[in-house]
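Design job #97: recover the sequence.
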């Protein structure tokens, strides 16, 4: 009897969705045949590398912009935000997004698994409705409601980001789990896998690219939304933006906005690279199995 992974890979190869995966596997084969120099040139051409370097340069060497900002805004002094260092603001911003996103991923995937099991199907409408409500509430409104309950600082910001990030994760996780072919489930059950083993070893791996797409959207949104946490005392890259608006210092606003935008772009590009890698690995496994 063939192992379960061979059964579901063989089925995956024969299914319609294999067209995309096989394409990635073909690209992987072509990439492996390229000379080392060409593969190195491809790495240097990666947008992740150059955007990441630009982000790091602006984050750690903001002072280098002083002459240009003084020329562009001659009546503003100082032109560089100095109440807190930009690396410290970034670290705080990153921590808020990471904590909220990890909580949203854990709860969102768990709820998606629950409502796609027979025992939880009756709760699917309620879960979708609650997630939609969390997404539809403006983050500023969530902060206004949360501050009296949990106080100022990072906690209301994390709560707002958590509620705002649930919907795309839940929707994509449900779509990914329901997109697993029924024949694959039947083959896994026929091989004697328990429901937990089917979920862990068959369904979640096959649904991973779709789930990752939801996480990618959620995290990217959280990076931009976290800036408003500065209005309730959280330290983020939005702090220079709001201080600049209050003090009428446009350079502060530009510095914070550019760094937030580059942070979101770098994160999105990293998720994109991870998604391509997952699909290539699936394609390579299929190709090796069918040689």
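Job complete. Output follows.
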């Amino acid at each position: 009897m063939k192992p379960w992974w061979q059964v579901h890979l063989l089925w995956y190869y024969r299914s319609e969705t294999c067209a995309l995966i096989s394409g990635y596997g073909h690209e992987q084969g072509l990439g492996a045949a390229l000379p080392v120099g060409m593969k190195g040139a491809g790495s240097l051409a990666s947008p992740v590398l150059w955007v990441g370097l630009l982000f790091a340069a602006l984050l750690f060497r903001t002072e280098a912009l002083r002459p240009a900002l003084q020329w562009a805004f001659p009546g503003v002094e100082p032109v560089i935000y100095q109440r807190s260092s930009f690396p410290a603001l970034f670290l705080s911003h990153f921590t808020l997004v990471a904590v909220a996103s990890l909580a949203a991923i854990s709860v969102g995937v768990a709820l998606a698994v629950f409502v796609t099991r027979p025992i939880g199907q009756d709760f699917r409408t309620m879960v979708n409705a609650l997630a939609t409500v969390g997404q539809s509430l403006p983050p500023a409104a969530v902060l206004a409601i949360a501050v009296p309950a949990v106080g100022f600082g990072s906690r209301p910001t994390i709560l707002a980001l958590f509620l705002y990030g649930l919907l795309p994760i839940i929707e994509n996780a449900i779509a990914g789990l329901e997109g697993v072919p029924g024949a694959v489930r039947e083959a896994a059950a026929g091989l004697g896998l328990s429901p937990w083993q089917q979920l862990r070893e068959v369904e979640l791996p096959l649904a991973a690219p779709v789930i990752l797409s939801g996480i990618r959207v959620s995290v990217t949104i959280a990076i931009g939304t976290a800036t408003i946490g500065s209005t309730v005392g959280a330290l983020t890259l939005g702090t220079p933006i709001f201080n600049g608006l209050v003090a009428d210092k446009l350079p502060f606003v530009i510095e914070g906005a550019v760094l937030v935008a580059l942070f979101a772009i770098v994160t999105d590009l990293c998720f994109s690279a991870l998604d391509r890698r997952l699909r290539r690995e699936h394609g390579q496994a299929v190709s090796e199995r069918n040689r």
